[in-house]
């Protein structure tokens, strides 16, 4: 079975005299069980590396922009140090959503002060134990 790839689901915006409406009519959150937000304390903070073998995530910037690097895990719980990484920029201006399927690690860094990222997950907290956390320098060693 071919592994599903992370993908940006593009949103859009409409502006008129009343203001701006940002939307994403293409994202399907039917599987979502919970949500949370991330607001890093500074631009220097990088939340790396965390992923899930079974759970998937949807990331949407609601304020500012975020750089999210995604790496497919080849072996659990300790992936190879040379796996390919793909960088995505998630921007609040378009309400784009990054869908990260199960089996990936992420590294998250905000690109603007006071940025906020909303994260949707498809399992309730504590429902399964499939988390993989690695040191931020894991792929640099």
How are the SSEs ordered, and which strands pair?
Elements: E1 7-9, E2 12-16, E3 19-23, E4 34-38, E5 47-52, E6 57-63, E7 65-72, E8 85-91, E9 97-100, E10 104-110, E11 116-121, E12 131-133
Antiparallel strand pairs: 1-9, 2-3, 4-11, 5-10, 5-12, 6-9, 6-11, 7-8, 7-10
Write up what this structure looks like.
There is one protein chain. This protein has 141 residues and is mostly beta strands. It has one domain (7-140): Sandwich (Jelly Rolls). The protein is built from no helices and twelve strands. The strands form three sheets. Strands 1-9-6-11-4 form a five-stranded antiparallel β-sheet, with no helix packed on it. A five-stranded antiparallel β-sheet has the order 8-7-10-5-12, with no helix packed on it. A hairpin with a 2-residue loop joins strand 2 (12-16) and strand 3 (19-23). The chain is globular. The mean pLDDT is 95.
Strand order of the largest sheet: 1-9-6-11-4
In total, how many beta strands?
A: 12
Helix content range: under 10%
Question: What is the CATH C level class, in words?
Answer: Mainly Beta
**CATH topology term:** Jelly Rolls
In quaternary terms, these chains amount to single chain
- How far is the N terminus from the C terminus? 31 Å
Shape: globular
Q: Give the structural class.
A: mainly beta
Q: What is the beta-strand fraction?
A: over 45%
Mean pLDDT: 95
- Which value, in Å, is the CA radius of gyration? 15 Å
H and E string: EEEEEEEEEEEE
The structural domain count equals 1
